Amino acid sequence: MRVVWATIFLDLPEDRFPDGVAFWQAVTATHLSAPRGPGGEFATLLPGDGDAFLRVQRFDDGPRVHLDLHVDDVSAAAAHAVALGATELHREEHVVLASPGGFVFCVVPDGGERRRPAPVDGPRGGRARVDQLCLDIPAPLVDRERAFWSALTGWAVTGDTTRELVPLARPDGMPVRLLLQRLGDDDGRAEVTAHVDVAAAGPDRDDVVAEHEDQGAEVVARFARWTVMRDPAGLVYCLTGRSPDTGVVPV
Known about the structure:
Shape: globular
Distance between the termini: 37 Å
CATH superfamily of the largest domain: 2,3-Dihydroxybiphenyl 1,2-Dioxygenase, domain 1
Strand order of the largest sheet: 2-3-4-1-5-8-7-6
């Protein structure tokens, strides 16, 4: 079993779905596919170049995000995930699972996607790229989740595992890196959640913040290496100090 692509799903509440979709279209320079699904609840954000890796869903319990792993053998991937401690929730052409810590994800058939879209140059001069999914993990679950995701994807754990933020090595061309964040002891979450990270390094980050505010987002908190934002649908995400071109923090 091999992971060949990854898609971030933005699961947005019905009443704020149009505003959320319009926001993400604007800041990623994408256009919306035709709706699909029994109730037209799914759609893809289509980039001008490269292959799509962002999708949206009308979701009653949103906002949240989930991950689709595109694999060369769905049944084998699902069996592997269950053997590693995941729980199978639903099966069709794809399989819906929950990680040992409760994070919902899907294994889906390979659709042939291989070309990572380029960063986006915004109207104020900012340069940015959605390129990371950060799993927010309660401290008691970190070791098991880290082992699970590394074993499932085949992506090695990198860096010092005692640190708060530990990434998995991203294969060349993969549009999404996985970052594992250990939550503080004062965080009340009992299960693993996730948020989107947008790379916007250096002085560009202030420009990108302004561009996102222009589209209806709001600043939640500012830190030295990232800015926490909330989109018009209520989804919290981060603008980080990593280069949208290289994915690393400039020295």
